[in-house]
Amino acid sequence: MDDQFIYTEIFMQADKNKDGFLTFEELYEQMKKFGYKDEELKFKDHLEKFSQRDDKKLTKNEFLEAMHKAPHILHEAAELRRRFYQLDLNKDGMLDKKEMEKVLGCLGERVTVVELDLLMKKFDKRFRNNRSMKKMKI
Questions:
Q1: For the EF-hand domain, which residue ranges apply (predicted)?
Q2: What CA–CA distance (Å, rounded) separates 24 from 47?
């Protein structure tokens, strides 16, 4: 998916009343759903630089400009979080063995129980058979 499409999708989903403007609060909630974290983006400060009005709202074009000028690493981290959320089928914030096996199966990889155990141990230093997004540093 290309960046422009993702940014447009974020804006469109956040613009519930379809007036073409978003408050920072509306946008903030939608950005979290797309994997962005406030402390990384310094969200409000960054976006306020692009608002042309005093009403604390952004147009779609202002938002797109702001997103394109944000550091690329922030978008990459958000993409990893989005993928993690998709893989975390039971939404517990962890990837367990079953979820990892399903992911690998979707990728066409068939692994034995031993291989899966080794893979989980490689990512899970405490050997709890799961891996949280926080521990993966994304």
A1: 2-37, 75-110
A2: 8
**List of domains in the chain:** 3-81 (1.10.238.10), 92-132 (1.10.238.10)
Find the radius of gyration of the CA atoms of the chain.
Answer: 18
Q: Are 43 and 24 in contact (CB under 8 A)?
A: yes
Strand duo 130-132 + 94-96: pairing: antiparallel
CB 22 within 8 Å of CB 31: no
Q: Return the structure tokens found at 17.
A: 């009343």
What tokens does 119 get? 């893979």
- pTM, full prediction: 0.67
Sorting pLDDT into bands at 50, 70 and 90, what band is 13? very high
> How does residue 127 score in pLDDT terms, banded at 50, 70 and 90?
low
